[in-house]
Design brief:
The protein is of the alpha/beta class. The protein has 10 helices and 14 strands. The strands form 4 sheets. The chain has an 8-stranded mixed sheet with strand order 7-4-1-8-11-12-13-14, with helices on both faces. Strands 2-3 form a two-stranded antiparallel ribbon. It has a two-stranded antiparallel ribbon with strand order 5-6. It is globular. The two termini are 26 Å apart. It binds ligand 9Z3. Ligand 9Z3 binds next to helix 4 and strand 11. Belongs to the PPC synthetase family. Pfam families: DFP. This is DNA/pantothenate metabolism flavoprotein C-terminal domain-containing protein. Keywords: Coenzyme A biosynthesis.
């Protein structure tokens, strides 16, 4: 039997107690409960929480400076599209300003690059972007109209962890039909709110010393307490390919997630390795098809594994 402190529950309690509270908590809970009610109770759909983008660590309470974790949000957005296609309802927990589902083919500044006013009144889409705009608008509107997509933005590590806990709590009754697909790049270190300066750090007094505390291990508490029955996929990102698989296998054993998707920064769009107790599977983009992305094959495999998990949970 694990003790409370081994599970990190006390670290989490003090992390949450000292976090600035979410500004729109009631609204988020209301949106989540309605979304889950519509999908799970009435339609019996599987629900996946896809996390995407990097969390920030503020250095000042009135934040001017922050530490960021790299993630464009492409993986999360592409995976969300594939989960919707596979029949799932998706809670997309994403970093504000990162890549959005159905928008991956649009230019960086769609408003300025996709549209024109030929006669100064009517708006028109440039022909070069017409198909991409049409698909983005139609697919996104269809996903929302069919209650298959709920988008919830975060910025800081404080917001991310509080929102993830709300989602896990709301999904508890969905049990094995729920999934967590944790592609967000989450800070390992942070400045505790209580020890953070309120105002902008002065720059005139030489080098800056900051002591960062370790963020409590979210994966342990998610698996043991927040959502023990959910199917759980975590990600491992490394820049040194020599240690990647070993680190992913270690995370699999430590957190007892159902699979760890291992990816190396420079090749992450070409291939990933799904590490699980049934062995390691290399998943690649179909390089002979220009439109193909690694998430097409990855989500197919994950959905398959989830189906087996649901069957085994019911038997
Ligand atoms: C990932 O490894 C994602 O696949 C990427 C996707 C962030 C590389 P992009 O958003 O890239 O498409 O540009 N996410 C998890 C990264 C992470 O922080 N993992 C932690 C770790 O490696 C575990 S939760 O220790």
């Amino acid at each position: 039997m694990s003790s409370i402190s081994e599970l990190g529950e006390d670290e989490f309690n003090s992390f949450f107690e000292s976090s600035p509270p979410l500004k729109n908590k009631e609204e988020i809970v209301h949106k989540l409960n309605s979304f889950i009610e519509l999908n799970s109770s009435s339609r019996g759909r599987r629900i996946v929480c896809v996390t995407s983008g990097g969390t920030t660590v503020p250095l000042e309470q009135r934040c001017v400076r922050y530490i960021d974790n790299f993630s464009s949000g492409n993986r999360g957005a592409a995976s969300t599209e594939n989960f919707v296609k596979a029949g799932y309802a998706v809670v997309f927990l994403y970093r504000s300003g990162t890549c959005q589902p159905y928008c991956r083919s649009l230019p960086d500044d769609p408003f300025l690059e996709c549209f024109q006013f030929p006669d100064n009144t009517n708006i028109q889409v440039n022909t070069s972007h017409a198909e991409a705009v049409k698909m983005a608008v139609m697919d996104q509107q269809a996903a929302v109209a069919e209650a298959r997509l709920l988008k919830l933005p975060f910025t800081t590590i404080y917001e991310y962890l509080q929102m993830l806990r709300l989602i896990a709590t709301a999904l508890k009754d969905v049990g094995p039909c729920s999934m967590f697909y944790l592609a967000a790049a989450v800070s390992d270190f942070y400045v505790p709110w209580n020890s953070m300066t309120e105002h902008k750090i002065e720059s005139g007094s030489g080098p800056l010393d900051i002591r960062l505390a370790q963020v409590p291990k979210m994966l342990s508490i998610l698996r043991t307490t927040w959502a023990p029955k959910a199917f759980c996929i975590s990600f491992k990102l490394e820049t040194d390919s020599k240690i990647l698989i070993e680190k992913a296998a270690k995370a699999l054993r430590k957190y007892k997630v159902h699979a760890v998707v291992a990816n190396e920064l420079s090749t992450r769009k070409e291939e990933v390795v799904v590490v699980s107790s049934s062995g390691n599977v290399v998943v690649r983009r179909d390089s002979d098809k220009p439109e193909s992305i690694v998430e097409d094959n990855l989500i197919r495999l994950i959905v398959d594994r989830h189906s087996t998990y649901i069957k085994e949970s019911h038997s």
